[in-house]
Specification:
By secondary structure, the chain is an alpha+beta fold. It is 49% helix and 13% strand. It binds arginine and aspartic acid.
């Protein structure tokens, strides 16, 4: 009995141990390699990352700093998400050519659309440079000297490390200052739009389905990298030629089945996997609820107006989506952290940590860490909450306050930098704000203000409130600000900004919106920010020591560095999940599900007629599986924001899907990864091909690709087989 129990425990541990983690591609040998092979991987580690010959990493560039993309043809064709290319698609759209509504397809290369401010960055090489960066640091007496020395070492090595002229060296820290890696990179800035499905495919389900499984979104778009005649990075020129990649991903037509191995390669932005229990409790009980309630009020008001007024819907759709994205994520995150008892699990780990520490005789070094966490996290709480109020309400969600804050800064510029800087900034504001006011609706913003300012006055930490807000009546204040402020219209702004500096500042200082924002900013920057920064610095130092201790004590052999926007590998399997009692979610969705959700004319769930027709005719070409068209699938890959557009790769190195989201119950994976409910969501590669081929008729794109049958071996050419 006892033995059985132990065995069961071991088994659970083993199965769980194979999941989660965002790993550095140059360090996969050993434990990761074994796990990946156990999960079914057929490639070697060198197929994933190799400096001396081409490997998967050569096909996976960072997309404009925030998303991931992958090269899928020998002519530099690039695949990423629709929501990653959204800005570019929108920028090329007009009333006559509405590419968001109708989609865009270049049927020949001349039709591809150049983009300003769009670049992709490849990783050429990754080197561990910890030793060089920490050289001469330990002997220094205090923290600020240490940091200065580290910075000095970083810039020296960045300058001296060998690279080509058209490459760059970037050094990033891992494990919170305990490891340093150097990246040699190549950045291409002539990247052109090749194709995008209509929003009713690329953003199907919109906010309602966002973060949710079952999902049915064709969230993809296509670009092409152009290079100069030597295949090197070059600014846009019509003489540039399609980039020839060192590697591109073949695309599998064989699809996925439950338990198939998957690898997701990309640039995850930020995670906090090593927080102590006290920090997690603070997120769940204090920080998330505050931000959620503020955004809940904002979204309810906006939605009410959007539903009644078409013009407002257009003005506010993008803003609504962006506010709703993290609102929804935080709700899922809090529920997930509670459901999986993340804080409880961490407490148990902390107990083990403390015991190990004593056994290893490291009590003097690390013995007070956990107690110090406790003290400092408790001390920072009111400051952190006040900070969230200020940034959510003043800097983000009330547009009048956000804009007015720019004028408060303008006055600061005058005080700190003088007349010339003031005039430059003033002219900037006068020309730049026109765009903003086009999409600003005073009625909407006024209602939002009334809702959130009441919360600010009554519920935020009272000790940091200026008198003007503390004693205010929300209704009265709203009427005053929106009734009298000149900053609610662009005309008003121009009027305020006319005249000499003195008169401008005088006009501003008698404006009720300006007075309020100036008051709120003053109390934030005097009462909150300095103390917050001081405590936060202490916490950062504690987190670094906590990480160092865990690395030294070897409490966890699957310890991986938190995401920091550098290239990582995560792997897992295609897997169903059970979010609650008696509910089991299958891992693959089909076009049938799109039709089930179809609401003709709806802005979230409309379906293009052509797609309905293809569905009715079951005209799926070579892309169907058993007569059905797969759309999305989920897996146990550990991803986060920034992984959007990441390739999902099969056991042999072929593209099987395109990552774009996570399931709602598992969004807590940024803080605590629980393999039983954390899933990433991918578009099935065959759905992408089907849309390009059958929906758009862009056979020119299909003919560039290398389509393979790794499972069935069907129609695979001999030379492909040999390569595998
Ligand atoms: N939740 C996904 C990610 O953070 C997709 C967001 C875009 N889609 C949307 N409906 N807003 O970023
Ligand atoms: N949707 C996210 C992104 O845009 C991915 C995620 O958070 O899972 O990067």
């Amino acid at each position: 009995m006892k033995f059985l129990k132990l065995f069961a425990l071991l088994f659970v541990f083993q199965v769980q141990a194979q999941q989660g983690g965002m790993w550095i591609p140059s360090l996969l040998d050993g434990m990761n390699a074994k796990e990946m092979q156990a999960l079914g991987m057929k490639m070697s580690i060198k197929d994933i990352y190799d400096v001396n010959s081409s490997s998967l990493k050569d096909a996976v560039p960072h997309f404009n700093g925030g998303c991931t993309s992958e090269v899928i043809s020998p002519k530099g064709l690039l695949l990423t998400n629709h929501h990653c290319g959204y800005g570019q698609i929108q920028a090329h759209s007009s009333v006559e050519n509405d590419y968001l509504a109708d989609g865009f397809w270049a049927y020949k290369m001349e039709d591809e659309l150049p983009n300003e401010n769009l670049e992709v960055t490849f990783i050429v090489k990754i080197e561990d440079v910890t030793k060089q960066i920490l050289e001469g640091v330990a002997v220094l007496p205090n923290e600020s000297d240490k940091q200065a020395k580290i910075q000095q070492n970083i810039s020296a090595l960045s300058n001296s490390f060998p690279k080509e002229k058209y490459q760059e060296n970037k050094i990033r820290t891992f494990f919170e200052g305990n490891q340093y890696m150097l990246f040699v990179t190549e950045t291409y800035s002539d990247v052109r739009l090749v194709g995008a499905p209509p929003t009713s495919i690329g953003k199907f389900g919109s906010d309602t389905d966002n973060w949710v499984w079952p999902r049915h979104t064709g969230d993809f778009s296509l670009f092409r990298i152009y290079a100069d005649k030597n295949n090197q990075p070059a600014k846009y020129s019509k003489d540039n030629v399609p980039y020839t990649p060192k590697h591109f991903l073949p695309i599998s037509l064989d699809g996925v089945a439950e338990d198939d191995f998957t690898l997701v390669f990309g640039y995850p932005g930020k995670t906090s996997e090593y927080l102590p229990a006290v920090a997690i409790e603070q997120i769940v009980n204090e920080l998330n609820p505050t931000k959620i309630e503020i955004r809940d009020r904002v979204l309810k008001v906006t939605d009410g107006f959007m539903r009644k007024d078409k013009a407002i819907k257009i003005q506010y759709a993008a803003k609504y989506a962006s506010t709703a994205n993290y609102y929804k994520k935080w709700i899922g995150e809090s529920q997930g952290l509670q459901k999986s008892n993340a804080a409880g699990v961490k407490k148990a780990q902390e107990k083990v940590f403390q015991e190990k520490l004593i056994k290893a005789g490291k009590e003097t070094e690390y013995g007070s860490l956990l107690a110090d966490f406790d003290t400092n996290y408790k001390a920072i709480a009111p400051y952190a909450i006040a900070r969230d109020y200020f940034s959510e309400i003043v800097l983000r969600n009330v547009e009048l306050l956000k804009t007015t804050y720019k004028f408060v800064q303008l006055e600061q510029i005058y005080k700190n930098k003088g007349e010339q800087s003031f005039t430059d900034r003033k002219n900037n504001l006068a020309s730049g704000l026109g765009e903003f006011y086009k999409d600003f609706n005073k009625k909407v913003d006024e209602k939002i203000f009334e809702q959130v300012i009441e919360m600010y006055a009554k519920q935020s930490p009272q000790q940091f409130l200026p008198v003007s807000l503390k004693n205010a009546n929300a209704t009265q204040l709203t009427a005053d600000v929106y009734g009298k402020s000149k900053l609610t219209t662009f005309e008003g702004v121009k009027e305020i900004l006319s005249g000499d500096t003195k008169s401008i500042l005088k006009k501003l200082n008698s404006d009720p919106a300006f007075k309020l924002v100036k008051d709120l900013s003053a109390s934030y920057f005097n009462e909150v920010a300095p103390k917050y920064d001081e405590l936060n610095m202490k916490i950062t130092a504690l987190q670094r020591d906590y990480m160092k201790a865990q690395l030294e004590l070897g409490t966890n052999d699957r310890i991986f560095p938190d995401a920091n926007s550098t290239l990582r590998v995560t792997y897992g399997q295609v897997k169903s999940y059970a979010p609650k009692d008696a509910v089991l979610y299958e891992p693959v969705t089909y076009l049938e599900g799109v039709m089930e959700k179809y609401i003709p004319g709806d802005y979230e769930f409309d379906v293009p007629t052509k797609l309905v027709d293809l569905y009715k005719a079951k005209d799926y070409g070579q892309y169907a599986q058993n007569g059905k068209m797969p759309v999305n699938f989920i897996g146990t890959n550990h991803t986060t924001g920034g992984n959007s557009g990441s390739p999902a790769i099969d056991a042999n190195g072929n593209l099987i899907g395109l990552n774009f989201d996570r399931v709602w119950e598992g969004t807590m994976s940024d803080i605590y990864y629980d393999p039983s409910i954390c899933r990433n969501i991918m578009v099935d590669a065959r759905y992408i091909l089907f849309i390009i081929d059958k929906y758009a008729g862009a056979t020119n794109i299909i003919s560039e690709l290398k389509l393979v049958h790794p499972k069935t071996g069907k129609s695979m050419k001999k030379k492909d087989l040999k390569k595998k």
